[in-house]
Amino acid sequence: MPARRGAGSPGAAAAFAGLAAPWIALALLFTVLPMIFASGSALTMLSLMGIMIVFALSYNMLLGETGLLSFGHAVYYGLGGFLTVHAMNTVIHDHLPVPLPLMPVVGAFGGLLFGVIFGAVSTRRAGTAFAMISLGLGELVASSSLILRGFFGGEEGVTTNRTKLLRVFGLNFAPQIEVYYLIAAWCLLAMLAMYALRRTPFGRMCNAVRENAERAQFVGYNPTMVRFIAFSLAGLFAGVAGALAAINFELVNSASVGAEQSGVVLLAAYIGGVGNFIGPVIGAVLVTWLRVMLSDLTDVWQLYFGLLFIGVVVFAPNGIAGLVMRHEPLWQARAYGAMLRLALAYLIALGPALLLLAGLIVVIEMSYHLSVKASEGPTISVFHLTLDTTSVWPWLGTAVLVVGGYLLFRRTWPIVDAAWHNALVAAQGAGKAK
Amino acid sequence: MQELVTISTLNGVLYGMLLFLMASGLTLIFSMMGVLNFAHASFYMLGAFFGFQIGQIVGFWPAFIIAPVLVGGIGALVERYALRHVHRHGPVAELLFTFGLAFIIEELVQMVWGKGPADYRVPASLDYPAFTIFSTNYPAYKMFELLTAVAIFVVLFVVLKRTRIGLIIQASITHAPMVAMLGHNVPRVFMLVFGVGTGLAAVAGVIAGPALVTQSNMAAALGPILFVVVVVGGLGSLAGAFVASLLIGLVQTFAVSVNLSVADVLGRIGVAPPTGGALFDVWNVTVAEIAPIMPYLLLVLILILRPTGLMGTREH
User: Fold this and answer.
1) Which residue in A138, A375, B61, B101 has its CB near the most CB atoms, within 10 A?
2) Residue-range domain boundaries for chain B
3) A307 and A408 belong to one structural domain
4) What is the pLDDT of residue B316?
5) Which H or E element spans position A75?
6) How far apart are CA B228 and CA A18, in angstroms?
7) Is residue A117 part of a domain?
8) A1 located within any domain
9) Using the beta-carbon criterion (under 8 Å), do A136 and B224 form an inter-chain contact?
10) Which tens digits make up the pLDDT trace of A91-102?
11) Same domain? A103 vs A251
12) With bands split at pLDDT 50, 70 and 90, how would you rate the model's confidence at B274?
């Protein structure tokens, strides 16, 4: 009989170090990032990304882990935020000895409370019905926010002042860098908790219910109860994200519970990829960056967002993380030569794809200018070129770009296919050689 | 009082009919293809805007025919070239695709027609009071809306129950592979049903556009109510959708005219309302103020009492 490994043995210590290493690296990354990107706008963006990461991961608990597609997840984010601002205002008003870093606990509690209340009603159905119910409940809360003015503060929302709480270690959280570190700490904590939850038996049962609820029933678990608990916990973490947002913006209003906020977190989680833990993190970072950058570049950034989303749904349903994970068999087999050739094929396909993309962007910008902003004159500036939208030449040029780009792009598909085929064969060969 | 009840009933039934015009297409598409078309309300909006734009060129009546056909054609193309492709990625991907489509259609409409309301007017031939009830003039346009909706339902019923293509459609809903094996082009039937469903939504848009506001947020305003109708009626049940549409139409219309609040009702018994705090609003809000959220309250009620909907079947 093999001897059991004691807790103090070197094997277990090495295993623990292997598990903890990525998290320590992540903590170091979070600490070092503001030193690399030190400008004010970069700090703000990093804080927003931190909030969105927690929110998107909580959404993934619903969609990726338990297979519950929700269109109203912002309700728990917003309600957690509202409870937090009210708690902060009470602490300030009554001079209670509660420091700011503890306030997200209120958000967590609020998210859990409303997750339990609404979850009891929502999780009675699954699948499409659940999605519609979440939409209806989201609209209910969003509309109620304009009716129940005492709690929701009407159209202006509820404001607070994060610098007036009890100071710890001399920090009053007025500068953005201190808020960033607070958000980063809570983000790390939440990520750890959600990752750990994934690996518990409960997390595995969520996956089982996602795959085949009837079979999970035969194993002895009630799918409705599993969904209910998953829903409540997802609400808890969404409440944490809402509390962090409340601390960051010092304002919570009806937009925080609205359909648009629900849509953004859905986009972020799905574009990143709901099959992996890292997917929503990627999606959150990307979507936050795009929302800030794109809105400066063009007026129709929402349209680009929608097109990106549809592109991901149609061509890459497992998101960006899914695309990256597709290459995992190659990485495992260490078929580096084949991977390099594959990367070359991707590069060849990238050229025409960029042409096609550029053409589409110019078409969209020109059409937008013609239909809405014709009064501002006929010329627009795209990619540092000035184009006259009323003359026929730019339109002809873009038509050539779009059609030509698409045809060339199609020509490169067999090249990429062949490179993949070779790479897979090489990976299998390398695997057998071991 | 009698006047209020009569007018509210007429308006409520009308609103319910409009909702059913859209919910019927949605239910047909769902029963047949298993995909809940999130973009259904967007096709309604497209119908309204196309009706407006084409009406500017050729007048209301030709636009009334052309716009739904155009939108139905777009719907059929969407089904044939996009939805079918996404189908193999599973039901979540299909629903998310229609969600993204709704988003894009709204952005495109905003891009072309701007964010403000379009000046879509009732045509002159219908702009007179049809009859007078208890001193209120009831507009002829509303009677036209009602008659159009009823006529469409009759046609739909006759086509589904009494024609050969209706027979094939009914069979394809429950036994698509068998119908395909019998030699019918089932994918083409799907395309037809999707096109007709979206065309119905477009008809609702063309006739409701002049009466309600024609604006780029139409879809976002009506979409959630439409899905509440479908869930309350029971997913996949046409009769349930009919009952739920009428119910929601009547409840919302009657609620707008009721000015009671919980404080009023309890005040008659002698219970004093709280003077402050979060519950103050709940006590003092009137039924008329919460009329817009009545459908969602109904949804919560149905979910507690009868989770499968009024006439829904058990979950498969």
Assistant:
1) A138
2) 2-216
3) no
4) 42
5) helix A74-94
6) 49
7) yes
8) no
9) yes
10) 999 988 889 999
11) yes
12) low
- Cβ pair A122:B230 closer than 8 A: no
Which residues 137-196 on chain B approach chain A with CB closer than 8 angstroms?
none
Question: Is 50 exceeded by the pLDDT of residue B131?
Answer: yes
Last residue of a domain, one of A289, A318, A347: A318
Residues A332 and A205 grouped into a single domain: no
Same domain, yes or no: A155 and A270: yes
Other Cβ atoms less than 10 A from the Cβ of A20: the count is 11
- Please name the amino acid found at residue B173: I
- Domain end marker among A268, A289, A318: A318
Quote ipTM for the complex: 0.87
Reading phi first (left if > 0) and then psi (alpha if -120 to 50, else beta), residue A167 is in: beta
Structural domain total, chain A: 2
Q: Render pLDDT for A223-236 as a digit per residue (tens, 0 to 9).
A: 999 999 999 999 99
Average pLDDT of the segment spanning B149-153: 87
Question: How distant is the Cα of A359 from the closest Cα of chain B, in angstroms?
Answer: 18
The CATH number for A36's domain is 1.10.3470
Identify whether A15 is part of a domain: no
CA distance B259 to chain A (A): 15
Residue A99, beta-bridge partner list: A166
* 47-66 in chain B: CB under 8 A from chain A: none
Chain B residues touching A133 at Cβ < 8 A: 231, 299, 303
pTM, two decimals, is 0.89
Task: Name the B residues in 243-282 with CB < 8 Å from any A CB.
Answer: 276-278, 280-282
Same-domain pairing of A337 and A261: no
Q: For chain B, positions 287-306, list CB contacts with chain A under 8 A.
A: 289-290, 292-293, 295-297, 299-300, 303-304
Residue A355 in domain? yes
CB-closest option in A133, A151, A302 to B299 = A133
In this structure, the dihedral spanned by the alpha carbons of residues A290, A295, A301 and A304, taken in order and rounded to 10 degrees, is: -20
The domain of A376 spans: 328-433
Task: Kindly identify which residue of chain A lies nearest to residue B281, measuring between CA atoms.
Answer: A148
Q: Are residues A236 and A358 in the same domain?
A: no
pLDDT in tens, A137-165: 998 999 888 888 888 888 889 999 988 88
| A162-194 pLDDT, tens digit each | 888 888 888 888 888 999 999 999 999 999 999
* Cα first-last separation, chain B: 47
**CA A291, CA A296: separation in Å to the nearest integer?**
9
Q: A340 and A271, same structural domain?
A: no
Decide: A53 and A88 in contact? Cβ < 8 Å.
no
Least Cα separation, residue A258 to chain B (angstroms): 12
Q: Are residues A143 and A52 in the same domain?
A: yes
A259-272 vs A127-147: helix crossing angle, rounded to 10: 140
- Smallest Cβ distance to A314: which of B85, B285, B296? B85
